[in-house]
C-alpha cells in the first residue's frame, strides 16, 4: 500500500527530476499525454497546464494514490491500472513514466514495446532512481539480511533494478528511436530537527520501505526501522541541522519511429 502523505513529505525534492525530464520533451501540440505511475497526481496536473489542448491521463496501480489525485482540481483522467498491461491509444504523442519503472522487473522489454506502439515522432520520457548502490540502499539490504528478516524481507529487495543511461540508450536506439539519455546526482539537503527521526529514514518511508511495510507487522516494522535508522545516522551524519543526501537519477527522452530525426 502506498501512503500519499509519506510520499509527498519531500515533494519539492521528488518533483525536481520530473521537471528536469519534461524540459527535454519538445512536443508542441500533442493530442494526448499519459503519465504512467502518476502517484498523487500533483505533477500530472502540470502537464495539463503545459499542454491545455491535449487529453491528459494519469495511471497508477495504487488506489490510495488515485483517490488522492482525483481530489485535485485538474482536467486529468486518473485511473487505477498496471503499467505492464497498458497500451497507448493511437493519439498518444507523449508518454511519461516518472520514477515507476524501477518497480517493474522486465521494464526494458516494456520500453521497447511502447517504442513500437507509439506513433512515429512520439515522445517517450522516463526517469528512474539510480542510487541503489548508495549508502541508503546498502543499509537497507544489510538490515534485510539480518536473521530476523532474511526470509521475509530480503527476497523483496533487488540490488540493480535499473540500467544505466548507455544501456537504455542502446536498447531504444535499436528500437528505432532518437535518444537523449543522461544522469544527474542531486544533493538533497534534508532538515534534521533534533526531536525527529533521521530524515533519510523518513524519505525511504515514501518509497523503498513500501514492500517492507507490506510483509511486517507493526512490531516487526518498528524494529526494522530502528535498526535501519542507526545505520543511516552513521552513513548520513547531521551537519548544520541538516543531512546531505546525494541522490543519483537516470533520465531518458526518446523520439519514436523512423521519422524521429526528421522532425527534430
Summarize the SSE layout with pairings.
Blueprint (H helix, E strand, L loop, with lengths): L3 H4 L3 H12 L9 E5 L5 H9 L4 E6 L2 H7 L6 E5 L11 E7 L8 H11 L5 E7 L5 H10 L20 H10 L3 E14 L7 H7 L4 H6 L2 H18 L2 E2 L2 E14 L4 H4 L1
Helix pairs in contact: 6-10
Would you mind describing this structure in some detail?
Strands 1, 2, 3, 4, 5, 6, 7 and 8 form an eight-stranded mixed β-sheet that branches. This protein has a single domain (4-263), classed as Rossmann fold. The protein is of the alpha/beta class and 264 residues long. Strand 4, helix 5 and strand 5 form a beta-alpha-beta unit. It is built from eleven helices and eight strands. Helix content is 37%, strand content 23%. Residues 259-264 have low confidence and may be disordered.
Radius of gyration: 19 Å
CATH homologous superfamily assignment: Vaccinia Virus protein VP39
Q: What is the average per-residue confidence, as pLDDT, rounded to a whole number? A: 92
Considering DSSP H and I runs of 4 or more, what fraction of the residues is helical? 25-40%
Beta-strand segment tally: 8
- The CATH topology assignment is Rossmann fold
Sheet having the most strands: 8 strands, mixed
Could you say which overall geometry the principal axes of the C-alpha atoms support?
globular
Which CATH first-tier class would you pick? Alpha Beta
Domains, number: 1
Which architecture does the CATH hierarchy give at level 2? 3-Layer(aba) Sandwich
Helix-strand pattern, N to C? HHEHEHEEHEHHEHHHEEH
Tally of contiguous helical segments: 11
Instruction: Please state roughly what percent of the residues sit in beta strands, choosing from under 5%, 5-15%, 15-25%, 25-35%, 35-45% or over 45%.
Output: 15-25%
The end-to-end span amounts to: 41 Å
| Structure class | alpha/beta
Stretches with pLDDT under 50, minimum 5 residues: 259-264
Amino acid at each position: 500500500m502506498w501512503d500519499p502523505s509519506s510520499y509527498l513529505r519531500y515533494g519539492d525534492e521528488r518533483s525536481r527530476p520530473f521537471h528536469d525530464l519534461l524540459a527535454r520533451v519538445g512536443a508542441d501540440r500533442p493530442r494526448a499525454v499519459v503519465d504512467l505511475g502518476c502517484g498523487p497526481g500533483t505533477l500530472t496536473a502540470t502537464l495539463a497546464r503545459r499542454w491545455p489542448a491535449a487529453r491528459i491521463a494519469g495511471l497508477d496501480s495504487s488506489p490510495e494514490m488515485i483517490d488522492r489525485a482525483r481530489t485535485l482540481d485538474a482536467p486529468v483522467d486518473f485511473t487505477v491500472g498496471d503499467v505492464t498491461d497498458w497500451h497507448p491509444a493511437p493519439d498518444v504523442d507523449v508518454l511519461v513514466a516518472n520514477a515507476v519503472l524501477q518497480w517493474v522487473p522486465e521494464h526494458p522489454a516494456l520500453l521497447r514495446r511502447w517504442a513500437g506502439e507509439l506513433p512515429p515522432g512520439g515522445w517517450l520520457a522516463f526517469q528512474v532512481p539510480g542510487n541503489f548502490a548508495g549508502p541508503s540502499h546498502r543499509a537497507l539490504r544489510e538490515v534485510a539480511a539480518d536473521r530476523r528478516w532474511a526470509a521475509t524481507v530480503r527476497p523483496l529487495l533487488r540490488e540493480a533494478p535499473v540500467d544505466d543511461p548507455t544501456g537504455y540508450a542502446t536498447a531504444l536506439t535499436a528500437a528505432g528511436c532518437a535518444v537523449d539519455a543522461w544522469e544527474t546526482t542531486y544533493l538533497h539537503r534534508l532538515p534534521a530537527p533534533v526531536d525527529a527521526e533521521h530524515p533519510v529514514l523518513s524519505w525511504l518511508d515514501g518509497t523503498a520501505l513500501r514492500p517492507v511495510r507490506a510483509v511486517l507487522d507493526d512490531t516487526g516494522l518498528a524494529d526494522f526501522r530502528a535498526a535501519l535508522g542507526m545505520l543511516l545516522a552513521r552513513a548520513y551524519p547531521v551537519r548544520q541541522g541538516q543531512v546531505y543526501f546525494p541522490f543519483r537519477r537516470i533520465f531518458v527522452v526518446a523520439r519514436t519511429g523512423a521519422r524521429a530525426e526528421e522532425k527534430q
